[in-house]
Amino acid sequence: MITLYVFGPAFGLPDASPFVIKAEMLLKLSGLPYRKLRGSMRRAPKGKLPYIDDAGTQVPDSTLIRLHLAERHGITLDAGLSETDKALAWSVECLCSDHLYWCAVHERWLDDATFALGPALFFQRLPFLLRGLVTRMIRRKVRGNLHGQGLGRFSPAERQRLLQLDISSLATLLGDKPYMLGAAPSWLDATVFAFLASTWLATLGDTPCKQAVRQHPNLQAYVERLRRQYFPDWTA
């Protein structure tokens, strides 16, 4: 059985990380038996979660997990997709993982109100005298990462404009289809669902990401439909 190492539930989500939700969705789509265990980033390959252990083979990174399922188990999750579809799917994957993700990181970690409802809870287990120091240090590190990535250099209005382009592109691609690329789910749905659900269903207040999704009823219906279909125990 495959073991998926995760952070654990947070903010009304089955996991704090959209990459973990994506990895679990890939396993659900694969039909392979799996279990979830809380992981440690100190023990994880590459120092990040999620990762899987498949009969002794450790695979880090949600995208590498997808490729592993194809290579070891022959489960590509792209049946019926043309080469153009696959290229489009990879482009959308990068939009979610390398741009939309950072929009969510910014609002979770650097907006004081959102931080108080979300990531601040991670620091409650620290001794009171250390809590403020460690919290400021981690938020400063996140700010530096966002500055290096580039999104942290923009004004709130500029970030919101770029965020709306991300979300409206996903809404246009979905259209009135049940899944992102047609009548059947593909690995792209694992990615898009994970990132949209992590914003639309998170109990983090009325964030910019949630405001952007609210403008697109088809995305809201898509998230709810896939949540019921693949995560029936996840009550929104």
UniProtKB/TrEMBL annotation:
Domain GST N-terminal residues, every copy: 7-77
SUPFAM superfamilies: GST C-terminal domain-like, Thioredoxin-like
Matching Pfam families: GST_C_6, GST_N_4
Domain of life the protein comes from: Bacteria
Protein keywords: Transferase
CDD domains in the record: GST_C_Metaxin, GST_N_Metaxin_like
UniProt GO MF annotations: transferase activity
UniProt name for this protein: Glutathione S-transferase family protein
Species annotation: Aquitalea palustris
